[in-house]
């Protein structure tokens, strides 16, 4: 007996074929080892999805519709759960953040805090006080001085800057911020100002370092 179902299935509305032929198909699939196949008598999304998986495994166009050849193969035992590879989605393990990204994330939380000379938080910061606490959040200790921080870690070229890298400005190394991407840093500017983003090009660049 030939079977042709699924051609009129509408996944959006849940409509399409239903009745005894669909029940026969679903029961046959369960007998072939597809034990999670429902026997609702409706050609629902679960049934369509399984038919498409089987068609793909047999290198057929995944139409989701069952024709006479598919039905004959199922009846002949050529289609079984053991011959169909159901690929499970590969979940990517979340990538751990770098120390620099952790430091930058901390600095972002301080945006809007006021500048305080010698400040190391929690509500007021000077430039090196902000970088100290940001990098401490990443597990790295820094001295409280832009000049001293300039001697810590690895020297980084401007073209290789990564988030969280320490960026230094002005002759004599008198200011420091954390690289925040797109040519910007987060810094604690000077009295009367607040922790904010600024384009690196607005200040004389003197170099960069990557602690830890």
Folded structure, characterized:
This protein has helices spanning 20-31, 45-57, 68-75, 99-109, 127-136, 146-149; strands spanning 114-115, 124-125, 154-156, 166-169, 175-181, 184-187, 196-199, 205-210. It has 212 residues and is α+β, with helices and mostly antiparallel strands. It has 2 domains: 1-91, PGBD-like superfamily/PGBD (Muramoyl-pentapeptide Carboxypeptidase, domain 1), CATH 1.10.101.10; 99-210, endopeptidase domain like (from Nostoc punctiforme) (endopeptidase fold (from Nostoc punctiforme), Alpha-Beta Complex), CATH 3.90.1720. A 6-stranded antiparallel β-sheet has the order 3-8-4-5-6-7. A two-stranded parallel sheet has the order 1-2. Strand 6 and strand 7 form a beta hairpin. Helix 4 packs across helix 5. The chain is rod-shaped.
């Amino acid at each position: 007996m030939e079977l042709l179902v699924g051609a009129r299935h509408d996944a959006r509305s849940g409509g399409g074929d239903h009745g005894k032929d669909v029940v026969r198909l679903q029961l046959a699939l369960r007998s072939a080892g597809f034990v999670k196949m429902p026997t609702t008598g409706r050609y629902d999304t679960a049934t369509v999805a399984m038919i498409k998986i089987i068609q793909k495994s047999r290198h057929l166009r995944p139409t989701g519709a069952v024709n006479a050849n598919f039905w004959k193969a199922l009846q002949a035992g050529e289609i079984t759960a053991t011959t169909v590879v159901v690929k499970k989605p590969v979940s990517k393990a979340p990538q751990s953040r770098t120390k620099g990204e952790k430091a930058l994330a901390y600095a972002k939380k301080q945006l809007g805090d006021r500048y305080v000379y010698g400040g190391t938080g929690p509500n007021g910061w000077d430039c090196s006080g902000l970088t100290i606490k940001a990098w401490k959040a990443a597990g790295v200790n820094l001295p409280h001085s832009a000049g001293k921080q300039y001697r810590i870690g690895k020297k980084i070229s401007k073209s290789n800057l990564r988030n969280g890298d320490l960026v230094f400005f002005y002759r004599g190394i008198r200011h420091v911020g954390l690289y925040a991407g797109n040519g910007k840093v987060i810094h604690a500017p000077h009295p009367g100002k607040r922790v904010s983003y600024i384009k690196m090009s607005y200040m004389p660049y003197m170099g960069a370092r990557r602690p830890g």
